[in-house]
């Protein structure tokens, strides 16, 4: 029997009672990016990019230019004082090309085909008005896709994630390593740039699978075996961590048992997101809330879905949304629960999974956190509409939620009450206009 929490037909706190199904893609849709308050782009394995209106579901443009699947996508708004603001998106593909698109006209602005390997990630540094592309090397581009500088060949595996850091630095995940690079303008007065490797951090025991920036002081990384490391964004020192599940120094006697019961797939950190207070981690089938000040997990749902959780986001209120390989999208609310005085507070991932630390440590932790609140994640909504893995989603506030899936569909989930009110308002305006017409006649 599945241990996944369920919710009945009566989902009182779930506003998404209407849905719009958007068709057009011919293969798995892996990416959604927000362009502005009402537009977004979708891309995936068919190599086509679609631009959509999030309010109406109208297809605005269909962008053709790649011959293989899309591997990365990023939005970029130019803010030059000399010219009008333009909304651009940049896409990378397995055909080893990168294209810049104008979202207003739907036209191709620039295309580059000089890559030796597939670009796996794209990052925009708005402050410097440049793009970064990560593959077997790291390249820096201006808005017109002129190559400003690049690193030497790093690795065949390539960079799989990038995150911007203060002081013109970036962190690149390359296998188990985290490489810190610094960008600087050339001193000779030309428009040239330099990119310098500053440091290599080798604290992870397995490949880094997720990176997230918390603020200008902190960023967090997660690996395939469930390691979570909190880093100082200024000096790149390790601030805190949750040890991986097979750390033999903690429980050497149960090491083989843990290895048998937990496969790396079940403990992999698929996605990280954050607010100023907490990091929210999609780990295997579960979701975890890690408090940065307390340096511990304060709430978890070990089996939030029947399959791996692929994407997680924190909403402006105390809610989280998660989506999974099982095709479901779920809404959770972080709630405080009354703690019994004698109840020891879990100190991290280990306790969440039932592998406690030594009694002495547990007792110390219990005393330390005796007066701190304990939280739990309550399931408040279950959105069933996709027939295959939901890859990711975008939250558009009152316009609703957009989800994309391996079933080739995008679904816009709408607040039923709001949509009904809007329809009534439109009808009322039409009736009022008709009444005015009749009066004039």
UniProtKB/TrEMBL annotation:
Top-rank lineage group of the source organism: Eukaryota
Q: Which UniProt keywords apply?
A: Autophagy, Cytoplasm, Repeat, WD repeat
The residue spans of each WD repeat are: 22-62, 63-111, 302-342
Protein location:
Cytoplasm
Biological process (GO) annotations held by this record are: autophagy; regulation of autophagy
| Principal cellular location given in the protein's record | cytoplasm
Quaternary form? Answer: Component of the C9orf72-SMCR8 complex, at least composed of C9orf72, SMCR8 and WDR41. The complex is formed of two protomers, each individually consisting of one molecule each of C9orf72, SMCR8 and WDR41. The protomers homodimerize via an interaction between C9orf72 (via C-terminus) and SMCR8 (via N-terminus). Within each protomer SMCR8 (via DENN domain) acts as a bridging protein between WDR41 (via C-terminus and N-terminus) and C9orf72 (via C-terminus). The C9orf72-SMCR8 complex associates with the ULK1/ATG1 kinase complex.
Protein name (database record): WD repeat-containing protein 41
Which organism was this protein described from? Answer: Donacobius atricapilla
């Amino acid at each position: 029997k599945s241990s996944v929490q369920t919710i009945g037909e009566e989902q009182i706190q779930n506003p998404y009672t209407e849905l719009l199904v958007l068709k057009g893609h011919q293969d798995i849709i892996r990416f959604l990016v927000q362009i502005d308050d009402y537009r977004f782009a979708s891309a995936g394995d068919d190599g086509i990019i679609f631009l959509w209106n999030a309010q109406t579901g109208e297809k605005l443009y269909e962008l053709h230019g790649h011959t293989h699947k899309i591997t990365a996508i990023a939005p970029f708004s130019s803010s030059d004082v000399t010219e009008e603001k333009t909304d651009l998106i940049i896409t990378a593909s397995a055909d080893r090309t990168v294209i810049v698109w104008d979202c207003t006209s739907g036209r191709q602005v620039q295309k580059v085909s000089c890559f030796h390997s597939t670009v796996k990630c794209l990052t925009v540094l708005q402050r410097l008005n440049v793009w970064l592309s990560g593959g077997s090397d790291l390249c820096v581009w201006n808005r017109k896709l002129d190559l400003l500088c690049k690193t030497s060949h790093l690795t065949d595996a390539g960079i799989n994630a990038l995150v911007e850091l203060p002081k013109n630095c970036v962190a690149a995940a390359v296998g188990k390593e985290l490489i810190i690079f610094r960008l600087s303008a050339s001193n000779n007065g030309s428009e040239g740039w330099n990119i310098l490797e500053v440091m290599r951090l080798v604290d992870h025991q397995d490949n880094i699978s997720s990176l997230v920036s918390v603020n200008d002081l902190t960023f967090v990384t997660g690996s395939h075996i469930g390691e979570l490391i909190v880093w100082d964004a200024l000096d790149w020192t390790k601030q805190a961590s949750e040890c991986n599940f097979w750390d033999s120094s903690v429980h050497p006697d149960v090491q083989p048992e843990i290895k048998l019961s937990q496969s790396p797939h079940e403990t992999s950190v698929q996605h990280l997101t954050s607010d100023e207070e907490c990091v929210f981690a999609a780990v295997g089938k579960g979701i975890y809330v890690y408090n940065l000040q307390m340096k511990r997990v304060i709430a978890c749902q070990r089996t939030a879905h029947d399959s791996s959780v692929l994407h997680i986001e924190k909403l402006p209120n105390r809610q989280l949304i998660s989506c999974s390989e099982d095709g479901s999208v779920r809404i959770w609310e972080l709630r405080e629960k009354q703690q019994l005085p004698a109840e020891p507070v879990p100190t991290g991932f280990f306790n969440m999974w039932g592998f406690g630390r030594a009694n002495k440590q547990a007792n110390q932790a219990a005393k330390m956190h005796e007066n701190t609140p304990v939280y739990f994640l309550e399931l408040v909504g279950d959105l069933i509409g996709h027939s295959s893995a939901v890859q990711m989603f975008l939250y558009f506030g009152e316009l609703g939620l957009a989800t994309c899936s391996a079933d080739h569909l995008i679904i816009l989930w709408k607040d039923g009450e709001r949509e009904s009110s809007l329809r009534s308002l439109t009808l009322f305006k039409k009736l009022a206009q008709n009444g005015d017409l009749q009066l004039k006649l």
